[in-house]
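Handoff note, outgoing to incoming analyst
You'll be picking up this chain. Sequence as last confirmed:
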Amino acid sequence: MNINRTFSLPVSTAMKLKGERNQSRTVTKAVNKYLSDQQDFSLADVPIRQLMAAIHARDDCPETLKAVLLIELNNKPKKNPRRINDIKWKTPPEIEFSDAKQS
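Most recent structure output, in case you need it:
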């Protein structure tokens, strides 16, 4: 099923498309290629603890690095409090008031 959409293109791009036999198919292929390239895998998107676990599981990982990774993986990550009542608030210091007008 196809739908019609209107997009603005630079004149130079429109002139290049003018020579194509099926302009819609050419634009569809180009957009699909662009979108698939954007969805490439990147290690930067993987959580650090998951990367550490994967390195630790490898056979070619040095034992010293495995030991450091295991220590770090066994430490639970610090989490921010989810509720306001979980936050440890500092109380204001006790202030003693004195009457300055006493004579």
